[in-house]
Write a structure and sequence with these properties.
about 200 residues, alpha+beta, eight-stranded mixed beta sheet, 5 helices
């Protein structure tokens, strides 16, 4: 479901100030993501950053953050994944992150995991399937391209979340630093499709 919410005279500076109060300094988050990308030899300028994501430890905080984001922005999609809702919120004006314009923030409601830090948590980049490439072949290609199995500084996990209505395969590779140097608990995720393509593929779109 798409909810359109046109905004006139949007005060972007005020939005950024409030966003920092809720989620933390986006500049520090950017530095941590760049550090992680450097460890695996990934040039962020070569791949589209699809969206940014936040994390929190209780439902009250999630609802407060969701309400804040929806004051001036719009709900692109809300789905239930593994027993909890995940909201995708499209910003009326994009953020600049690692030199790219990013217009979507992912806000998953908490489940049972407790995060050391609430706020900005991961980004997702897009590395598309090659022609006739299977999910397994795509995963192996990403592993080899960035030398993930041999990199002793990182942990990574390959998964394929199942979301009701999604028609395209949407595997994910989540990469984190094994030793959270400089308190870097952030995550970089790789997908073959951007979220807008996934949403447009759904039966009920």
């Amino acid at each position: 479901m798409i909810l359109k919410n046109p905004v006139k005279n949007f005060d972007f500076a005020n939005f950024l100030s409030k966003m920092t109060a809720y989620f933390g300094d986006i500049g520090q988050f950017e530095q941590k993501i760049q550090q992680l990308a450097q460890v695996i030899g990934l040039d962020l300028s070569k791949y589209p950053i699809d969206h940014l994501a936040v994390r929190m430890n209780n439902v009250e905080t999630a609802q407060q953050w969701r309400d804040f984001l929806l004051v001036d922005n719009s709900l692109l999609k809300e789905s239930e994944v593994n027993g909890r809702p995940i909201s995708l919120i499209k910003l009326v004006e994009p953020l600049i992150f690692c030199g790219q314009k990013v217009s979507i923030i992912e806000l998953p409601f908490p489940k049972d995991k407790v995060y050391l830090e609430e706020g900005w948590e991961h980004i997702e980049i897009v590395i598309p399937f090659m022609e006739n490439e299977s999910v397994e072949q795509w995963g192996k290609r990403i592993e080899l391209q960035f030398g993930l199995p041999q990199n002793t500084q990182i942990c990574y996990k390959i998964s394929q979340p199942k979301v009701l209505g999604e028609r395209l395969p949407n595997p994910s590779i989540a990469i984190t630093l094994k030793d959270a140097t400089n308190r870097n608990n952030c995550c970089l995720k790789v997908h073959p499709y951007d979220i807008t393509t996934i949403v447009c593929s759904e039966n009920n779109f």
